[in-house]
Fold this sequence. Notes:
Blueprint: H1 2-36, H2 39-47, H3 49-70, H4 74-114, H5 125-146, H6 149-179, H7 187-216
Amino acid sequence: xxxxxxxxxxxxxxxxxxxxxxxxxxxxxxxxxxxxxxxxxxxxxxxxxxxxxxxxxxxxxxxxxxxxxxxxxxxxxxxxxxxxxxxxxxxxxxxxxxxxxxxxxxxxxxxxxxxxxxxxxxxxxxxxxxxxxxxxxxxxxxxxxxxxxxxxxxxxxxxxxxxxxxxxxxxxxxxxxxxxxxxxxxxxxxxxxxxxxxxxxxxxxxxxxxxxxxxxxxxxxxxxxx
Length: 226
């Protein structure tokens, strides 16, 4: 029985790694689409959503099968519970990548309807937001694969930088709204991208917290400091 459950858990981990890799690619492509305002990249993100949803369902079914057949305890039970929670976060991050990609298409459609060739101004803080958000998700995946609690802790600490960047972007967009009224139709879409990135970083922080629970049995989300 021990070999059976360990084999099942190893298989489950591989499914999670694959799902995480697909979601990571979706986030990266969505960010590239924002950088370049490339509809083709944005459509690629939207087209990949069905695959992410299907993989998420498969992982959930594997978890339920392990719980039913093996009745895991201790660290094995924590692993399965953690995978169920992270699986949901992965799927929601995929949804957020789609929403960001959709805003790229909407910006281009609005520009075309207005007959505008003026460049869209993106606040400089987006560069930090893009980099940190991607780094958080990649580090989460690495922490899960390598079972690295210290790396998971570092991910939790990165979240504040994304929050700060989002606040700065909102203030920048308010100034643009006053000084460049021709950009006003696009500013809500740009702000929506920032909100999407912030929510992705929040999910990454939740994943990191769950990894710490998986490895150490600690629930840290209500702790004042980590």
